Amino acid sequence: MSSQGNYRINPETLMYEFRASSGWKRFFKVAATFLASVALALFLFWFVAIVLGKDLPKTLYLKRQNIRWTSRIEVMNRRLDQYEAVLSGLEKRDEDIYRSIFGMDSIPSRERNAGLVSASMLAAIEAEGGSGVLQSTAYRLGGLAKKATVQSSSFDEVGKKASLAGDMASCIPAILPMMPGRFVLTSPFGYRTDPINGTSKMHTGMDFSCPPGNPVYATGDGVVESVQFEFFGYGNHLVIDHGFGYKTHYAHMKTINVVENMKVKRGDQIGESGKSGRATGPHLHYEVFYRDAFVNPANFLDTTMPAEEYQALIRKREEEHQEVLGQPFSLRRRQQK
Known about the structure:
The chain is α+β, with helices and mostly antiparallel strands and 337 residues long. It has seven helices and 14 strands. The strands form three sheets. Strands 3, 6, 7, 8, 9, 10, 11, 12, 13 and 14 form a ten-stranded antiparallel beta sheet that branches. Strands 1-2 form a two-stranded antiparallel ribbon. A hairpin with a 2-residue loop joins strand 13 and strand 14. The longest helix is centred in the N-terminal third of the chain and has 45 residues, at 57-101. The N and C termini lie far apart (112 Å).
């Protein structure tokens, strides 16, 4: 086995002579070289990062990646601005036009904006060390998804109503509740002096003065929502739900010929006028509601319809009932919806 060492020149003999080296010397030499290299590397990192204020290669790479992703998020947020503007326009048209036309209730703001982003999504973002910009974008994405879902459902509801738009004309309470020429309009819609206590009070309907027993007719197609018999207040009265946001109320009646959940059509006789309840004389108190708010019935009533045309409508309805059921509408039994 040859020993390790190196050749050196002898200055006296001018000859190369082999000199063996020990293992410890070699070890210390290698260790010293390694430590010197580490120290030099640390010095260079310190000098570049601290003295010169430069980023280390990995830090510089991460910063570039962060800038790249931040730019992408900014582009996404600008697109979200555009999508939010479009969706807001759809929501406004939906509330102000589509749902209003068909008498549909508004969608509450809390329902449109509920559940913007799930807790699990936020937890995942925080676990990954997501920034505030990323969390804000997640909120906006969640909000748009929720609003889009609500708006889609709303359009589905409007679409169903629109498919029934042909029936809307017959459902709006458009004719007088009594035969023209058989009543006197004694009190219109608006503020008046109460005939009992003499105070100024809002009159929420129209009063048609007439003798007891005068036939009362449905002013539009609908379903009888309620029938009540009271000693005070409105006395014997009923409410018809016409759909599309419209309802009509007939009060102080003598008799009522319909029951709850019965379908009626415009021109069907629903009872007779009277003076039941809190009334100073025989009359029909008639009210119209639109989306659960009192409105002036005169805005819907066709007061120019001649008595002959009105009578022809009533006669046609009676003939239709006799053909279908073999009996007048006033004797008709309860009918399912």
